[in-house]
Specification:
Blueprint (H helix, E strand, L loop, with lengths): L4 E9 L7 E6 L2 E6 L11 E5 L2 E6 L1 H13 L2 H9 L1
Antiparallel strand pairs: 1-2, 1-4, 2-3, 4-5
Length: 84
């Protein structure tokens, strides 16, 4: 099973809709994400990210619910440890 994880868009780069990317914060973990599937996404939006692609926009409340669940499962700490 694969999960889509919410993240907050901090900045975007590029004008071409296919190659446009964003710097996305996943509750303390920042990665570059392709925004081709969410051309309307802007800085300050929360997006669901799956395998490096933002696939939909969600509101902050929904993103926080997912973050809380991941914290309870200790998955965010595991991800941070793998990166560093």
């Amino acid at each position: 099973m694969c999960l889509g994880i919410p993240g907050l868009i901090l900045e975007t780069h590029g004008e071409d809709p296919v190659t446009r990317v964003g710097k996305v914060n996943f509750n303390g973990i920042t990665k570059t994400v392709n925004l081709a599937y969410t051309p309307e996404a802007q800085c300050g939006d929360y997006v669901i990210v799956h395998v490096g692609f933002a696939i939909s926009i969600v509101n902050q409340e929904e993103a926080n619910k997912v973050f809380n669940t991941l914290k309870q499962l200790n998955l965010l700490e595991q991800e941070k440890n793998e990166i560093y």
